[in-house]
Amino acid sequence: MSVLEVSHRGKDFTECAADAEATIRRLAGVSDDYAVLFLAGGATGQFSAIPGNLTQRGDTIAYLNTGQWSKKAIKEATRQGLEVKVVADEADSSYTTTPAPGSFTVPAEAKYLGYCANETIGGVAMPYVPTEEAAGVPIVADVSSMYLSRPIDVTKFGVIFGGAQKNLGPAGMDISIIRRDLMGHARSDVPAIWDWQVMADNDSMLNTPPTFSIYLLGLILHWIEDEGGLEAMAQRNDAKAARLYEAIDSSSFYNNPVEPGSRSAMNVPFTLADSSLDADFLAGASAAGLVNLKGHRSVGGMRASIYNAMTDEGVSALIDYMAEFERTRG
């Protein structure tokens, strides 16, 4: 039988889930001061769960607006009756920058400071954790598209959450790492499956959990461990990104719009000097075995996502294709 067929309460699967949690704790240095939860609904589900667990209607929260996913979280918090103070908004740069350290302050009454650590669509990443700016206010970070791509100091955060589908497994599952003192305060109308304390008390199994996703998560976590852990992932990812950015920056045919200090190591957007060639570029890339390069409709151009599993050879193939396309069509 496969993991899809066994009981989620049987020994085979409960050991599988426990192993996945233990491996996350080893890899990321997560102490018992934090709960690790495997939750349905992906990161978007937590846009609703986080206000429901940390606030009451009318409370104030602070947010950094660095792009599409920040805006979605802000919209949902507002819908839930919160006063959202956008303490830094990068709209003036068309979301190609991140707020400079010390350029914003967080209201003392804020229940938490939220931000998206890596904006998948815009290719923008926060280069620091704003602990000084938060001044003791719990920090809540959406790390979906950079989850376990590099070491992280969990102790700087109140909540770390993200969808598994970029670096850690299939879509549909959120992995939340939550400081335990922030749990147990959910609003009375929060659904039980999104009440962190209820889910922690039930080992993330109040409902039938996403068993196959958890099984694959465990395999991928062991792969990361076997590859040398998060330090090794960071070195590989930084090297891949540096090579791709160098190829773009050294060309007058390609351009990356993101301010260098805010560039993502996971998502690299770029445009062609002549946008009328976009369709030809994508067709040629597909013929060369390079897929999923079309940029998001809100941004346009191209976007190369180079998550943990992307090999050096894959990045080399893209760089070689870009150079050949520029030579023949530029």
Automatic annotation (TrEMBL):
GO process terms (BP): L-serine biosynthetic process; pyridoxine biosynthetic process
Pathway(s) per entry: Amino-acid biosynthesis; L-serine biosynthesis; L-serine from 3-phospho-D-glycerate: step 2/3; Cofactor biosynthesis; pyridoxine 5'-phosphate biosynthesis; pyridoxine 5'-phosphate from D-erythrose 4-phosphate: step 3/5
Keywords: Amino-acid biosynthesis, Aminotransferase, Cytoplasm, Pyridoxal phosphate, Pyridoxine biosynthesis, Serine biosynthesis, Transferase
N6-(pyridoxal phosphate)lysine: residues bearing it: 166
One GO MF term attached to the UniProt entry: O-phospho-L-serine:2-oxoglutarate aminotransferase activity
Cofactor field: pyridoxal 5'-phosphate
EC top class named in words: transferase
Origin: domain of life: Bacteria
InterPro entries in the cross-refs: Aminotrans_V_dom (IPR000192), Pser_aminoTfrase (IPR022278), PyrdxlP-dep_Trfase (IPR015424), PyrdxlP-dep_Trfase_major (IPR015421), PyrdxlP-dep_Trfase_small (IPR015422)
UniProt key word tRNA-binding: no
Chief site of localization: cytoplasm
Catalytic activity reported: O-phospho-L-serine + 2-oxoglutarate = 3-phosphooxypyruvate + L-glutamate; 4-(phosphooxy)-L-threonine + 2-oxoglutarate = (R)-3-hydroxy-2-oxo-4-phosphooxybutanoate + L-glutamate
Keyword Cytoplasm in record: yes
The record's free-text note on cofactor binding: Binds 1 pyridoxal phosphate per subunit.
Binding site for L-glutamate: 9
Subcellular location: Cytoplasm
Positions of pyridoxal 5'-phosphate binding: 43-44, 69, 120, 142, 165, 207-208
SUPFAM superfamilies: PLP-dependent transferases
Entry's Gene Ontology cellular component terms: cytoplasm
Matching NCBIfam families: PRK05355.1
Function comment: Catalyzes the reversible conversion of 3-phosphohydroxypyruvate to phosphoserine and of 3-hydroxy-2-oxo-4-phosphonooxybutanoate to phosphohydroxythreonine.
Family per similarity comment: Belongs to the class-V pyridoxal-phosphate-dependent aminotransferase family. SerC subfamily.
Quaternary data: Homodimer.
HAMAP family linked: SerC_aminotrans_5
UniProt-recorded name of the protein: Phosphoserine aminotransferase
Species of provenance: Actinomyces urogenitalis DSM 15434
